[in-house]
Amino acid sequence: MTKKLIVANWKMNGTSKKIANDLGVYRANEITNTANVVIALPSPYLYLALGIDAKFKLASQDVSQFANCGAYTGEISSKMLVDFGVKYSIVGHSERRSNFGETDTVLIKKLENVIQAGIIPIFCIGEEQQVRDDGKYIEFLLKQLELLLQLKVDINELIIAYEPIWAVGTGKVPEVSQISEIANLIHSFVQKTLPRAKIPVLYGGSVSAKNIAEILQLNDIAGVLVGGASLNFDEFTAICTYA
Ligand code: PGA
Asked: Which run of H or E residues covers position 165?
């Protein structure tokens, strides 16, 4: 099997002590200390990874829609993320779309900022259970993808993560055929509309050490975005054997 990209999303978890310790442990382990492992840290703890000289990469869980520094209380710009060695940025996670009302207009600005700063966006898309039950998920996902065509910057490198909302944090995982159907949809959309860009597709939503092999056997899936299971050392290490 080709090597896969394993992205951990630690969400709003941890303390400086725990995160400093975990980063050290992951750096010391050959399985986790590779360039195909990416860890999305809570922003206040990004500094803990500065200077640890690890092979794994850092991601941010979000970024400001505002590009330049200024009077934007509470915001973290893409330039600040670069300053902390961030290589990837999650944009449009379903938890941000639903809890913080992130609209397409905001997501377009976030994607543009990240790309301009030289960070690779991990753009999340995914439908709710109801949309799937109604059989409207293909048009729903295509609409989320079409946002990419509104960007005013060139897209050379971007990652798309398919994260069905009904699978995120629920323990419910789609059938492999359902994941494959969406991976194909994304790849053909990209081929038609952004043929020159490098756009791998990840799957996210209740990924675990138990289901990882089945998901990653799909050639169209370049890796996974892992939430809950990435907080457990043994489980995440097992997942990283595919990196
Ligand atoms: P989960 O989260 O693995 O806990 O379902 C995935 C995500 O939110 O990216």
From this structure: none
